[in-house]
UniProtKB/TrEMBL annotation:
UniProt cross-references to InterPro entries, sorted A to Z: ParD-like
Pfam families with a match to the protein in the record: ParD_like
Organism of this sequence: Alteromonas hispanica
Protein name: ParD-like family protein
Length: 56
């Protein structure tokens, strides 16, 4: 898996750290999880959020 360095808003990083700890994910894995949900939601706007979240 290729990786890249990107600049992220500090609030996003802090929220991802908090949520990641609660869900047993690292901060980068939490941001990746959110990105996947966002990608699926944009590609399938007719699908409910809960369906997309559970599909991942």
């Amino acid at each position: 898996m290729a990786t890249s360095s990107v600049r992220l808003d500090q609030d996003l990083v802090e929220n991802a750290t908090i949520m990641g700890k609660a869900l047993n994910r690292t901060m980068p894995k939490q941001i990746d999880h959110w990105a996947k949900i966002g990608e699926m939601m944009e590609a399938n706007p007719d699908l409910p959020y809960e369906f997309v979240k559970n599909a991942i």
